[in-house]
Amino acid sequence: MKYILLISILPLLVFAADDKPHAFVGKIESLDPRFSALIAPGTKIEPLAEGFRWSEGPTWYEGGVVFSDVLANTAYRWKAGMTRAEVFLRPSGLMAAAPGFREPGSNGLARDAQGRLLLCQHGERRVARYADGTFTTVADRFEGKRFNSPNDLAVRKNGEIYFTDPPYGLEKIVDSPLREIPYAGVYRIAINGQVTLLESKLTFPNGIGFSPDEQTLYVAVSDARATRIMAYDVKADGTLARPRIFFDAQSRHGQGLPGLCDGLKVDREGNVWATGPGGVMVITPAGKLLGVINTGEPTGNCCWGDDGATLYITANYFLVRVKTLTKGAGW
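and the corresponding structure tokens:
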């Protein structure tokens, strides 16, 4: 069942509440000569805005990057020329005060086939669409049971939405009394709104994205005991087959590098730009790590913007960007 909620956007002169300064110490690390074809040697990471509690889920939308602060229940927007990010939506994930949520805001964001904004809303436990000041539920249940807290999503060219549903948004996480589904699933929302469970055996499925030909689906797993990126074949009917580990990041986590496998995006050549231990890991379609955009922070997600060659990254307190020599898939 769908329902609609009207909400007003706060005045755009309202800024991030946390003004405490933080030092940014990121750097770009090349691990393979092929990396220089993707990021030019000498390229720097450019900080754009700071003051967030946990920045996440960026997407390019209406000429700027929109991203979530999950803990602050706020979505921000940054455009060229701004020195600070402005509030775009508040609240962004939990519409009315309610107990039981540790991360109430929106998380992953994307655009649907018509260019409208999609949000994974932890607090409302749903995938929602935002347009013209209105949130509309896209999906909030599977077989009559509420989702845990939808985390990230990817949209196929045909308009189908694939998303992950770990319990990170809930207090006590896996032990939350609010849980109605006992596993953390990967789902597909068909054009007609039907929800299909695709995977239920991952502990904490998180970031998600397609290869350029949409024949492969990547799913990050943010389990500190086995953080990794999985790959699946996408069958003709949209379901998944042949699960396999695409990149095992546990050794990097064991080195004490900040972060776990989280959000990811794919470029037009099929390289996977995946947040994980140490920042944004750039991985070939064959699973070879070429280099790392080391933000020095636990890093949530990334997206391409501008002309498709600028990578925007949400890294803990920060929004940063890096100019690349490639473009995101679909640009």
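(Above: one complete record from the training split.) The CA atoms of residues 96 and 123 lie 9 Å apart.
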